Amino acid sequence: MGNVQLLLRQHVGAPCAAIVKVGDKVEKGTLIATPTGLGANIHSSVYGEVVEVLEDRIIIKPDEEQPDAFVKIKEGTPLEMIKEAGLVGMGGAGFPTGVKLDTKIPGGAFLVNAAECETGLVHNVRQIEEDFARTLRGLKYAMEITEAAKGIFAIKAKNEKAVAVIREAIKDEPNIFIHLLADIYPSGEERAVIRECLGVTLGVDKLPSAANAAVANVETLLRITEAIEDRKPCFSKNLTVIGHLNDGNKPHVYFDVPVGTSVGELIEKSSGIEEPYGEIILGGPFTGKPTTVDTPITKTTGGIVVTMEFMDLHQAPTGILICACSGNEERMRDVVSKYNGKVCSVTMCKQAVEMKSGALKCEDPGNCPGQAEKVLKMKKDGAEYIVIGNCSDCSNTVMGSAPKMGLKVIHQTDHVMRTIGHAIYRKLRISKQVPQLPNGK
């Protein structure tokens, strides 16, 4: 096992401050960094010695022996223990869970994002199939803390085995239900989950509490149970490694990987990269970012994707259509560069709203009124190809106009989808509406 690098920014908010120094011996669960503002505690994920304390990370050399035992957090109320454990959302931006659960929603709904939104990632569904009891208990703890009246598991209908596991487990739970989602992207976006489960469309500046709801993903619930029942700090991560690997493109699922483990170590554990390859993505095909083998995983890392090589556009003039549901302009330009295209036009999805932070949010994730005007602009700017990063529905509307204008379409995720054997995102050929059982069970 190589050195473990624990980044001091693992979450939304300010980076943490190290409270250890070079030469300190640490154990699994040793508190090594604390928040300087909005944030969450960081604990060592291994037994070892601190060898470097840098501005952005703490580097630990692991001992050869790694016992299963860990330093337990102090006892307290369930909410206090969640905060002490350093829990953050394990499937998105990493908002501190203790802060999220400190908001009461009496009579409201606690929604569980089990959508496994990013194509190719499968660890959340696998967790449901193999360890649902602790996941369900985590939901009950979250409901009790927030005073929610009901809980709802939102999951894609295609995951039939996981759906069956949930239904069997909740059949005698009067306040816990299941809501089936269509197999589209971004069905797991927080406001999309609220819209689909509760019929409430939130504005881009509204939090789930505006719908008297809270949302967490399935791994977050599992870590809630660990914090409360086992007094376990949050120092491990579930994730998927998939792509252009020596043993094929099947997904490799890993549970309880020590946070700070390198991308390269997990790729090697998954049989290694099949050369030549295109890029390594940290995260999922839509929202992940290009990375290197030296990068450490964090509490929010959901996937590592190795892709096939990019085709060559031979410097063809290429337009970019930026979507709030996928890569930002920097990422889209990076993709065009890797395709050896030449950016000649940049436009933005008509539903993308720029927030104060500079990030984009979609007005109605997954529902698109059309992109013909944006496509026409790229055509007028001289584009031969357009690279889009849109959701399933936006991609569908682009395909209603771009081919008629003689434009060749590439989706930001094409090289990933071809690598893993998944259909590329173009025409939406399924209904966005999924039939539900009358009693939600």
UniProtKB/TrEMBL annotation:
SUPFAM superfamilies: Nqo1 FMN-binding domain-like, Nqo1 middle domain-like
Keyword Iron annotated: yes
Domain RnfC Barrel sandwich hybrid intervals: 4-55
TM segment ranges: none
UniProtKB keywords: 4Fe-4S, Electron transport, Iron, Iron-sulfur, Metal-binding, Repeat, Transport
InterPro entries: Ion_transpt_RnfC/RsxC (IPR010208), Nuo51_FMN-bd (IPR011538), Nuo51_FMN-bd_sf (IPR037225), PR_assoc_PrdC (IPR031001), RnfC_N (IPR026902)
Gene3D superfamilies the record matches: NADH-ubiquinone oxidoreductase 51kDa subunit (3.40.50.11540)
NADH-ubiquinone oxidoreductase 51kDa subunit FMN-binding domain segment(s): 82-225
NCBIfam families xref list: PR_assoc_PrdC
Protein name: Proline reductase-associated electron transfer protein PrdC
